[in-house]
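Appendix C. Worked example: Acyl-CoA dehydrogenase
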Amino acid sequence: MEAVRALAADWDRTNGDEVFPAERVAALHEVGALAGFVDVSSPERTDALVDVLRAIGGADLSLGRVFEGHVNAAQLVSAYGDDAQRRTLESDLEAGCVYGVWNTEPQPGLSIRQDGDGRWLLQGHKSFATGAGHLDRILVTARDASGGKQLVLVRIAGETARADNSGWQVRGMRGTCSGLFDFSDMPIGPEGMIGAPDVYETEPRFSAGAWRFTAVQLGAVEALVRHLRDHLVATGKGDDAIQRARFAACLTETRSAGLWVRRAAHLAEAQATEAIPFVLMTRGIVEGAGLKTMEAAARSVGTASFFAASRIDRITRDLGLYLRQPVPDQARDRAAAAWLEEDCWGDDRWW
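Step 2, the predicted output written as structure tokens:
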């Protein structure tokens, strides 16, 4: 954790180029982060992953999105793969291979069809494909002949011609390179078929796993609070009561969000019955802290926060996009409906 924290502190000093963060991913491999979080079943490992995701998110949200997807993919292969697939995963991670998960797709969707004995071919595309053209292994969902959603692990290292990032023209998160990827006629063997059909959406792992990206987002909000505080101290604006009140609101909301994120992580990794509504509610709490802090930073710092070299500008642009996905209003609504039925806090229930 200390090695990641040191890297993140250095990265947070200036804005990097808005391209895929290959060098930073390699640095995470060098300190063991790519292979370090396949198993986070113990409370200590859960806490460690929370802190690593926060640190990376505070330094580079595009990197945080890539790293979170890598951890998700590695955990899915470990959970649903067979012994041989887990051994391959282990050797891949030791070699520094970068994994990811792509589920979103344009119609008619990605499909898989038989092509001889023990061989299959993929047909179709994935969209919003984080790291398109830059990852080594990708876990995708593909419809089989029976209509089931099969998890398929595909080797895509070097398949840059299949990636189309030309449409990824966005204000923030540009470095994720979340474009379109064409899988047409890519061959798959039995070693690429992960688990049984429809295992990907097994609950509570599928929905409660969203806690990981709330930790990445939280790290960015925490970084904004730090940069806002530094500006108030450096400029003397902290002597103004209005500025102090604004800063206090950001600080308390962000610290409170941190408590929700950590509890959400532990409930999710323990597969607690209340994990899903708790994680869904946590998403809205992190979003609220982020929106408040972005607005406060713009008001307190002023025009200087909109210059391209400003860390506040980069974090705000990236976080503004990251908080929009996926379907935050629906997540809050599902959470509220569940909490109306019963208190999902766990212990010390109010009803």
